[in-house]
Amino acid sequence: MNMKYASFAFSLLLWLGSLNYCKPEPRPIPELEKFVVKNVIHPSSNPYNPDKIELGKYLYFDPRLSLKQDTSCASCHNSELQNLNVGTPRNKIHNQISPKLTNVALYKDVFQDPHAKDLEDIVKDRLHSEIMLKNESVVLQRLSAIPKYRELFKKAFGSEEVTTERIVLALSAFERTIVSKNSRFDRFVMGDSNALTDAQKRGWEVFQNKAKCVQCHKGPNFSDSKPHAIGLSGVSDKMRTPTLRDVTRKKAFMHNGEFTSIEEAVDHFTRGGQAGATKDPLLKPSILSEEEKKDLIEFLRALEGETIQLEIPEIPKA
Ligand code: HEC
Ligand code: HEC
């Protein structure tokens, strides 16, 4: 890894983790975009390869991966791609709204499903049990019969063979490319002090000091990648801290979609969670003025990244 990024990454982590406000050193190159992308580690077991990513993109949108040919990964996880950000309503698999997969690669391999050890693992599980409905051979044969797929598999892996393993690698590699970047906050951190409005700067201070959100929402992805119980009524399960990047574009908040506005979601935390519900000791009420709450939300808006430019591919003809 390039030393400049390594040392910058380290100082940013320290900076985000510290509870004291300090003015960032102006930097000559506004390249946080690269910085975030550098944080996405394509592991040696599934190295970066544009052809594999291209294949993964087709597979992600192709309902023929499912036994009944009616569901693709994008059927549930499509919100960021079309910038709809509605999240799918509760789905048949889990009584949960589907999470955005933006920045999923930045969670340090801690997934909402605690049994998954890496991204490949969780993708494999979902693919096999929920999409192919354990009828892999039918689906693999179906895909092998499509000439364009044979060509794409050959380009990505060196031979035409269509296997579950390869599908998992390609889907995971593609997911690692869905990253929210170049937000106002990123530009601010890179030294452009005008990138944040005054309200956003005040909100960033509240986020770190008074409200101490940074205890859990820390680092470049605003997540400690750890599970916490946060005092939702009737929920004792711990959920992994989600990223706050792009959060203000969502229409439903928390894993169960309990809140429908960012204001309600933030209020929940400043209140210190529901009285009587199971919660992490880190979660304490903070006394904020209406002005400070507004600033805090303005700060969250500064975490909206560039619109993800992704053309939905036309899936290969049979
Ligand atoms: C029917 C809706 C649905 C479909 C189809 C679906 N998912 Fe999911 N996915 C979910 C829900 C809900 C969760 C969160 C609950 C969980 O982790 O079990 C999830 C979680 C995930 C996660 C973990 C996210 C995290 O932040 O921990 C990954 C990765 C993922 N899905 C990838 C995929 C891939 C790849 C496909 C296609 C093979 C797919 N999903 C198809 C609904 C779906
Ligand atoms: C104890 C750790 C912790 C602290 C402190 C904390 N959060 Fe969270 N936050 C979480 C977890 C865990 C979730 C996910 C809960 C769920 O999905 O049910 C979450 C979810 C959120 C969400 C909704 C995200 C989404 O995608 O739906 C917002 C917004 C949020 N937090 C903002 C804040 C703010 C603002 C503060 C400070 C006032 C704060 N959080 C403090 C752990 C924490």
From TrEMBL:
Binding site for heme c 2: 213, 216-217
Post-translational modifications: Binds 2 heme groups per subunit.
Domain Cytochrome c: 51-173, 198-304
Gene3D superfamilies in the cross-refs: Cytochrome c-like domain
Official protein name in the record: Methylamine utilization protein MauG
PANTHER family hit by this protein: BLL6722 PROTEIN, CYTOCHROME C PEROXIDASE-RELATED
Subcellular location: Periplasm
Pathway: One-carbon metabolism; methylamine degradation
CC cofactor: heme
Gene Ontology MF terms in the entry: cytochrome-c peroxidase activity; electron transfer activity; heme binding; metal ion binding
Residues where heme c 1 binds: 73, 76-77
Keyword Secreted: no
Keywords annotated in UniProt: Electron transport, Heme, Iron, Metal-binding, Oxidoreductase, Periplasm, Peroxidase, Signal, Transport
Superkingdom of this protein's organism: Bacteria
Gene Ontology CC, one term: periplasmic space
The keyword Lipid biosynthesis belongs to this UniProt entry's keyword annotation: no
